[in-house]
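haha ok so turns out i had the wrong file open the whole time. this is the CORRECT one, sorry everyone. sequence first:
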Amino acid sequence: MPLSVQSNFADPDAAYRRIVEAHRGLGDAQSALLDAALVLILANHIGDIAVLDDAIALAKRRLPEDTRSTATI
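then structure:
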């Protein structure tokens, strides 16, 4: 299964709002933990290591240029 980069949501704005709302009231550390848990849950749901590799590469390319060499995942 190739990485899908097109929106698969009928209402992408609603998906975005749900993610934003999930972070409401959380501190920075809690928000980072929520993001990490969500990533792991969704990666497991996908269950395809090649898709995961493609997603990691795409996400790293979206990091600001000055943080790419120091960013670790």
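The helical segments are 12-23, 28-46, 49-61.
again sry for the mixup
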